[in-house]
Write a structure and sequence with these properties.
NAD; SDR_fam; Rossmann fold; 39% helix; alpha/beta; NAD(P)-bd_dom_sf; seven-stranded parallel sheet; 264 residues; 7 strands; binds nicotinamide-adenine-dinucleotide
Length: 264
Amino acid sequence: SMKLMEGKRGLIMGLANDKSIAWGIAQKCAEQGAELAFSYQGDALKKRVAPLAERLGSNIVIECDVAEENSLDRLFEELGQHWDKLDFIVHAIGFSDKEQLRGRYVDTTRDNFAMTMDISVYSFTAVVQRAARMMGPGGAALTLTYYGAERVMPHYNVMGVAKAALEASVRYMAEDLGKDGIRVNAISAGPIKTLAASGIGDFRYILKWNELNSPLRRNVTQEEVGKAAVYLLSDLGSGVTGETHHVDAGYHLVGMKAVDAPDI
Ligand code: NAD
């Protein structure tokens, strides 16, 4: 059968372990014939990421801290030594001080606001800036966002403000790079239990709430995010750019769930 990503080369950023959303995406892309490279943050993660990469037939595993311009330059320089052309990138990276992912948004500090915006928003722009130079028409970039960008969600706080900016940056870059045939999109994933998610206050309750109140009456899996990523990164999504695509069991459309109302 024909594979959707045969002959495509993609860089996956943000793989920490086999619970990462990046892992769900990488697996689905590899299943569809894509050739992959990975970046990871800090030496401690290498022993986790390298074996996962190997499972998908990749030995291109490069360290990169997206907060550092030099580190980003080195990543793309090294990637360029392996590949002369890049077809897609996946940015599955976000960070904020865990202490401020609980309590009130209004208490966010200036330092954490700047750091959260830098790592969770600007890093995608910095990555796309460099990746686009290696891409031709048909190139595609994808980032991960959350409904907390659009509506107030408990504990999401400064991360919600950052995701709103990230989604706006997707639209601006879609316009900038559309002329070159490069597409830029985001997937707004429903809650999934990952390392990053476990830093959010009451995350188990958020998971349960989404399970009970989403139209599909369940949570989504990292594999389901992976399948939507294949659509957006492959030729299936050739007419789609600047989009924030919800993979959330429909949760984003709910105003109020239908239940048998009590007599009042
Ligand atoms: P994860 O912990 O598996 O991945 C987060 C990754 O960000 C890690 O690999 C970490 O190393 C990386 N990272 C953080 N700071 C970095 C830096 N300075 N340089 C390089 N890498 C850095 O968690 P995840 O849930 O898979 O998160 C991936 C993306 O998905 C994030 O943007 C997150 O906000 C988004 N998202 C997650 C959920 C969810 O419920 N898990 C829902 C919607 C969106």
